[in-house]
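Pinned message: reference record for SDR family oxidoreductase
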Amino acid sequence: MDNLLDGKSAVVTGGSSGIGRGISLAFANHGADVVVADLQESPREGGTPTHEQINAETDGAASYVECDVTSQEDLEAAVDAAEEFGGIDVMVNNAGIFRTNDFLETTESEYDQVMEINAKGVFFSAQAAAKRMVENGGGSIINMSSLAGYLGNATYPVYNMSKAGVRMLTYSLADKLGPEGIRVNAIHPGSIQTALSEQDMPGMDDDVAEQFVQMVPQRRSGTPEDVAGVAVFLASDLAGYVSAESILVDGGYANTG
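Predicted structure (tokens):
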């Protein structure tokens, strides 16, 4: 496999499980060193911790840092951890939560929980990385939004709002940081099959999930590897003139539904 990220160091928030794990492993398989920043070290779906698998099975090096993205101190520590590998080149702001909320019944605490992690967490993750990237002469920031950042849905208005905010933040930061040699892009996954899918979307029974899949032109759910391939591209020099972009990874659903 071509080492598209050879010599680069990345920090991936939420990198222990699901999409974040897929991105971390893909980065390492393409030659990057990775800081896995997450609340817990072991994957929620089971198996070898992501950083241990990278160290055992790839040419990349990896470390784990406990990180709560609502804590600026934790975010700065995660960025600092990349100094072991020569300093941060790529920041993937992947950590997030999914919640369904009835708009008329949503409490302030429920609203705050989603926005603190999905919006505020991305803002200050990007800030911590950008400060170091400015010093280092550039880099790539990849923000994980969602199909929900494009399409409204009555079932999870707070989640939609948080992910739409990530999309707008991405464009603003691309404008602000472009002169510093920093590219900023967003990925918008659709239905991605992970071991956590049922936990993350408790209201999605098998029949509803299958109905959704039948509306996707490719007639399947995505995988963490589908998202990771786009992240590798955005992190690599192949995307050297790509910034302020939102890339849907949804099998074509948004533009054909």
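Pinned by admin. Summary line: The mean pLDDT is 93.
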